[in-house]
Amino acid sequence: MDYETKILPHLGGYGRYNRVVVIFSWFPAFAVTLNLFSGHFFTLIPDTYHCRPDPSLLPSTLLPSNFSEQSYLNLTIPWDGNSGLSHCELFKYPPNVSDLSGKVPRERVSCTRGWEYSTVAGLQSNIVTDQMDGVYILINAWACLLTSAPPLQWDLVCNDYWKIPLQHICFMVGWIVGYIFLGTLCDWLGRQRGFLLSVGLSSLCGVIVCLSRSLVAFLLILLFNAVLVRVCLLSGLELCDPPNRLMVAMVGGFVSVSAELLLPGLAVLCRDWPVLQAVATVPLLLLLSYWCCASVFPESPRWLLATDQIPKAKKSFQEFASRNGVYLQDETFPTVLAELDSTYGEDCRPRFYSVLELRRTRVIWKNCLILSFTLFIGTGIQYCFTRNLLNYSKNFYFTYFLRVITGALACIFICLSVNHFGRRGMLLLSAIITGLSSLLLLALTQCKLTRPTFLTVTVFSVTDLHDGLVLVLSVVGLLFSQALSMLSAFFACEVMPTVVRGGCLGLVLAAGCVGMAASSLMELQSSSGYFLHHVIFASFAVLSVLCIMLLPESKRKSLPDSLKEGESQRRPPLFLSRYRAL
């Protein structure tokens, strides 16, 4: 029984109550974004840092008070070319040297007393540094007294730098498992119960992360928190009619962008990473109010009908109809209920599905695989574009806000174009521009352009033109790669059937997290494989253009509910006029 043509109009359509529920479905996007992107501030390495001077490595006759601060640093810390004071080494002098004016034999040793850091972006301390103040000093001291453990000192620099990308990878692994597991759980338990379970457990883990005192405990709890922070955002789309689905999804995207814009200000106010983690957990705690007021996040009536839960579906239909102002005694509404009884019968039993059902399908599996591939490319290739931006500014905020602004522009681009030109057409255009930008950047960054010797006076030198092209291509590629990611996730919601939509969307989003983890793998190898990474993703972007041609078009079409309807989501013919003529 078709939900959107035969049932939704009799429930008030996209009425007042549906709009209220959709508005409340946007708030989880804000909470999820705060938790996802706060990790950028937790693991940001300070711009400048060096070893803390160790007087035991200096001659016993030397008095530090006889030197200025800068002279003392120059005496104790090696100077590494143009980078300034060494990050990881100290000078060790012979013990009986009295004259330091000549060439004194000295050796380089690793840091012995920790590091001194400059203030990181936004926060005064994060998990990289060991500088703690304010409330967290009291928390850490209290924890040390209870466990007789040493104070928290992580110092994730130099030989321990590899632990930072490891934290990113663990975080992404948690999101991958969470997307798949809780996405499937939403298909088994329903949208409402899956959402409330996710929020409740993730809030608890968010609080525990604030109190973690060892790096291993921090990584394990953060991974578990990432598994549980997966919030079900399917109900909003399942309550809309086709003309409003894009608007609902894109407003959710703008809510996520607003959270990213707010995050640097929160970091400045919070100062310490445990406080920022606590603030990021507060929206999750507020979402627990949905448990007390179930009417703001009801169970999806579309899912109830698709899984043959007819008594619950009837009750949900009556609730939506009454809250939308539909007169229940009108003759049309009892007719709909009677048609339900005749279609499904009295002995109809509920039937639940999982992503394992994809083994028996051809079209659904193909669509899920293609959209997973495009989202993987969209998230993974962004590292190729953001890395080039570091050549223009080392400032963290430059790259951060440029990425957020291009994300907002990608939302605007989708809003203005997708309903007019179609989902598949704009996804194809985004993949083409992303691939071309990546290929051109690959060529420009490998060639060494020099200024011709016969040009004595020029307005724009060849080098300036080269740098300008690299900057423009990086921004354009970043813009359309984010549009590719957003469209892939939205497209997956529209072409996957209701009975497995949660699990299929989880698979697609998990593929996107694999792409995000690829950048952390590059950092783990100190960017030694960056060129190969760029070549692979540029090739994948070109290959995705051919794959997108196999996708269906979902513009202004009803959402598929059953596996049979999902199998009917086939691509339109390539030559439509000739096809009609035949």
Automatic annotation (TrEMBL):
> What are the TM regions of this chain, as residue ranges?
20-42, 134-152, 164-182, 194-209, 215-234, 246-269, 275-297, 368-385, 397-418, 425-444, 469-492, 499-518, 530-551
Subcellular location(s): the record lists: Membrane
Q: Which GO terms describe its cellular component?
A: membrane
Membrane topology is:
Multi-pass membrane protein
Superkingdom field:
Eukaryota
Major location category of this protein? membrane
Respond yes or no to whether keyword rRNA processing is given for this record.
Answer: no
Q: What is this protein called?
A: Solute carrier family 22 member 31
Q: InterPro entries per the record? A: MFS_sugar_transport-like, MFS_trans_sf
Q: Which GO terms describe its molecular function?
A: transmembrane transporter activity
Please indicate if the UniProt record lists Oxidoreductase as a keyword. Answer: no
Q: Where is the organism placed in the taxonomic lineage, from the top?
A: Eukaryota, Metazoa, Chordata, Craniata, Vertebrata
Q: Which UniProt keywords apply?
A: Membrane, Transmembrane, Transmembrane helix
